[in-house]
Specification:
Rossmann fold; 10 helices; two-stranded antiparallel ribbon; eight-stranded mixed β-sheet; alpha/beta
Length: 217
Amino acid sequence: MNIGVLGTGMVGQAIGTKLVQLGHMVKMGSRVAAHEKAVAWAKGNGSSASYGIFSQAAAFGEMLFNCTHGVASLDVLRLAGEENLNGKVLIDVSNPLDFSKGMPPTLSVSNNDSLGEQIQKAFPKVNVVKALNTVNAMVMVNPGQVHGGDHTVFLCGNDAAAKSKAAAMLRSFGWKEETIIDLGDITNARGTEMILPLWVRLYGVFQSPMFQFKIVR
């Protein structure tokens, strides 16, 4: 599958590399045509990896990953171009973390709204699926690194078929069927995004991002 990854940071690189390893063709998008990180990433991942500006990555991908900083995600998606996004599954990994006042960050949107919802409202013809935003990049693509993969990943979105495709992608990353919880429509992104202030504080306590939540009942 051709997949567009928006964002050149740790998350974008981890997901892009995993996708290449799984046999997908991946184009990493950034604001400039030859972003230093994107160029280096593509060079290290062979002929299945390429790079370009956001609109080129979005046009290339049959499925897209939003791995950009949450406070910039809407601007990035506008640069990607609605015509390049429409009709596609967009797995939104971002969080609306605002670091402008230092650590710990606050949420730029919460309670009665979420970044996932704002993206869906701004791009109504895009099938937005919120997923993987409650876990570190290394664990996103290798869940077995923590407790043998016996922990929980959440997803939500308005389109059942899109969520099915996103869940299949998660399983290809190594997530177990029974650990994937579908919370329902995109309004449930409010819950998964609001976990992040707790996640950040746990990171501070553990001095490591190698942990994850597990739902037991």
